[in-house]
Design goal:
Layout lengths: L4 H6 L17 E2 H10 L5 H4 L16 E2 L2 H6 L6 H13 L8 H17 L4 H12 L14 H7 L1 H14 L5 H15 L4 H8 L2 H20 L4 H8 L1 H19 L8 H10 L2 H12 L3 H14 L4 H15 L2 H12 L7 H17 L3 H14 L4 H13 L3 H13 L5 H11 L6
Antiparallel strand pairs: 1-2
């Protein structure tokens, strides 16, 4: 009978709705109620006592905490915040380490944050309360790094850094979107003089790339996102924007100066490519205008900085094709450049394979072109042009089934080229409707 809280949850007692407890709008979380009954007893008494017979002795067993308090707080004016605390603060504080009270904890944190912003003279009092409730979350169960980023940092610089480091450890793939960018933004806004703390975190190899991407994303949001409060604060703070650039430069240099093999070829390529991307864009503008000598000058400048950039090598091969007027010569140049391109530059290598495929297509070597387009798609599957080229080459080879399949895929990726529309129309007009 001494069932654990976990077992009670497994049996379906977690978050049970109720309508018979003495409270208006009763939509309450029963976990604190169950937890209080079982958790208050110690030792053998835990087995002996099955129910609570007196409300005065175990008052916390009769705390009924409504759902969606977080949403309730969003609707409150500043003048209503103290009334909210009078009603809910004590009953929530009696129940630490309850995962189902996530929203209740967060609601209190937001109230403390707003009161601290409203009354600077009492800011430290509200910060202490905020830090207390943020530590109520069970170990490893805090997942509000993004929407609570500024609150975490405001409560304590140390706590904000702790949350950021924990996020880097638990989300290896894209921590920047899970709250990393928001935490970095908030930290630099509130504690710009402690920017080197972010730099120190980045020097731990397992944290380096996640920190770099978080800072990059924070900068991108500041420059391009209009409906993000932290991004707006960042953009308006020139000093912090300069700190972000400084951090990016130092972390990038740390990566580039690391021993061979410390970071992947792709990670190194991404940093080196950023340094030449503006020149590369300008090079394509010159190419459109047929100002070939200017393209050559830019390419010489790019290769002096980074000779393995696949996209620059692609531009070089395309320039060679246009200047020579020969698809075969352009193909040979692309094949040579493939040997030079960084293995970490999947996008650039994909474009070189695509150029080879286009040259082979022009030369009427469709079977060989097919292989090149397949390699391009494998390296850069998100690019619809390679899928469209596969549709076209299958069409030329007489394989209408494969052509139709790739045309449909290209359309689903947003490709609206004439050949894709034609193939799709021709391969679907006689097919039965689903």
């Amino acid at each position: 009978m001494a069932s654990s809280l976990a077992t009670l949850r497994d049996l379906g007692f977690e978050s049970r709705r109720t309508s018979y407890f003495p409270q208006s709008n009763l939509d309450s979380d029963l976990v604190p109620f169950i937890e209080a009954q079982w958790g208050t007893y110690e030792g053998a008494n835990k087995i002996k006592h099955l129910t609570i017979k007196g409300i005065s002795k175990y008052a916390d067993a009769f705390d009924f905490i409504p759902y969606h308090l977080n949403e309730t707080v969003e609707k409150l004016s500043d003048d209503q915040l103290i009334d909210f605390l009078d009603q809910y603060e004590n009953i929530i504080l009696r129940h630490p380490n309850v995962s189902t009270l996530d929203e209740a904890y967060f609601a209190l944190a937001k109230v403390y944050f707003r009161l601290g912003q409203k009354d600077p003279n009492q800011k430290n009092v509200w910060k202490e309360k905020c830090l207390q409730i943020l530590n109520y979350y069970p170990q490893g169960r805090f997942h509000r790094e993004k929407d609570a980023a500024e609150i975490c940092v405001w409560a304590s610089a140390e706590f904000g850094l702790k949350v950021f480091k924990n996020l880097l450890e638990k989300d290896k793939r894209q921590p920047e979107y899970a709250g990393g960018a928001s935490l970095v933004s908030a930290f630099l806004i509130h504690f710009p003089d402690q920017w080197e703390s972010i730099l120190e975190i980045s020097k731990v190899k397992t944290n380096t790339i996640g920190t770099l991407h978080s800072i990059e994303t924070a900068k991108t949001w500041a420059l391009n996102v209009a409906n993000n409060a932290l991004a707006a604060k960042l953009k308006q703070n020139q000093n912090v924007m300069e700190l972000i650039s400084k951090l990016l430069t130092q972390i990038e240099e740390f990566i580039l100066s690391a021993p061979l093999g410390e970071f992947s070829e792709q990670e190194i390529h991404e940093i080196r490519h950023k340094k030449i991307v503006d020149r590369l864009t300008q090079g394509w503008e010159y190419l459109k205008k047929k100002e070939y000598s200017k393209v050559e000058e830019l390419l010489n400048s790019i290769f002096a900085a980074y000779e393995k950039d696949g996209e620059a090598l692609f531009l070089d091969a395309r320039l060679f094709w246009l200047k020579s007027g020969s698809a075969e010569e352009g193909m040979k140049r692309a094949e040579k450049n493939l040997l030079l391109a960084s293995n970490g530059d999947r996008l650039g290598r994909g474009r070189l394979h695509n150029l080879i495929g286009c040259a082979l297509d022009e030369l009427g070597k469709w079977e060989e072109a097919l292989l090149s387009f397949q390699k391009a798609e494998e390296l850069s599957p998100q690019d619809s042009i390679y899928v469209a080229n596969l549709a076209e080459i299958f069409w030329k080879l007489g394989n209408k089934t494969s052509a139709g399949r790739y045309a449909k895929k290209a359309k689903s990726m947003g490709n609206q080229s004439e050949i894709v529309e034609t193939i799709f129309r021709e391969t679907t007009k006689n097919s039965p409707k689903e």
